[in-house]
Amino acid sequence: MDEMELILKESFEKILEDFCDNDLLKESESNGVPTQLLETLEEFGVYLIGIDEAEGGSGFEKKHGLELAIIAGNYALPIPFTALLFRNWIAYQEKLDSKSHLSCGPFDQRIKINSEEEYLANGKIENIYGYTKGNDVLVIGTNERGEENLVLLDASQLDFKIKHNLANEPVYSFELINHSPKLVKLINPSVVNYYFSLQLLLNLAVATGALKKIVELTIEHGNTRIQFGKPISSFQMNKNNLSIMAESVKQAEIMTRTCIESLKDEMDQQYYLELMVAKLKVCEAISTATAIAHQIHAAMGFTQEHILHYYTRKLWSLRDEYQSESYWSQEISRFVLAEEKGLWEIITQ
């Protein structure tokens, strides 16, 4: 890590340290995104990390933005940081005009585009996280020839349905019936896969940061909570559970950081396999670590006065994004079965 990278991470962490306490997290659940924090980070230029300075960005590489996403997860940052970061990456990469009035849907979903009828769009998009009201929505659509397109949907024509996830964040969905998009642009499927890998990796980065935090909180609680005259972390059952928790989270962190470090501008099949395995390991770690954290904290971890539940509810919400563990297990199986090489060769190459 060079000096500029270190300054970037330390400065970002200092801002979050000053803002992200229990009171802010509680307030943001009731009142939405905290405006002052949102604007402070915008002034810092954090949403433009990974975009060349010549293009109006803040410089650095995308992997540095992903490292910041880990820090964001570690502080339960109550703003759609990864959604804004991804939006800007795509907007600048594709040279879209409405950069500041754009949100992105999940790139693992598809709508239908009828190129014979003025590119009318039909279909449904669900589980849009980090949407800003009034923004147009960028999604992926396929035409009757099976070609993939970037499709910019007009916000004025969208009838959103809103629900809230376990972290009490708004999640948007909509259905399209003969929608007239603002833009339809052919795109190579490999580029779509690369963009989706960025979305997925941002999700894993935030989850990794939050997982590390709940390990810290649980160890601290175990060392300070006294029962029968000694810390509860000294009881054998809790020792075993803490070691299981730490091991699971460390495995997830290693997988996520490996994917971040090996990120390139193009995605090959081996990288996609690593990403699928990382998603699976992070989901497993969420299930394991959150259960143990709440077991050791007991009822205290669910109270408004304690910060733990802000992390665990966020983790459960992140686990639900971009398909389930069973889906990714099946995808890994399909990938391995489709390869000419044997399983051992795939793993060890």
UniProtKB/TrEMBL annotation:
The keyword Transmembrane helix does not apply. The keyword Kinase does not apply. Residues 202-314 form the Acyl-CoA dehydrogenase/oxidase C-terminal domain. Keywords: FAD, Flavoprotein, Oxidoreductase. SUPFAM superfamilies: Acyl-CoA dehydrogenase C-terminal domain-like. GO terms for molecular function: acyl-CoA dehydrogenase activity. This is Acyl-CoA dehydrogenase/oxidase C-terminal domain-containing protein. It comes from Neobacillus rhizophilus.
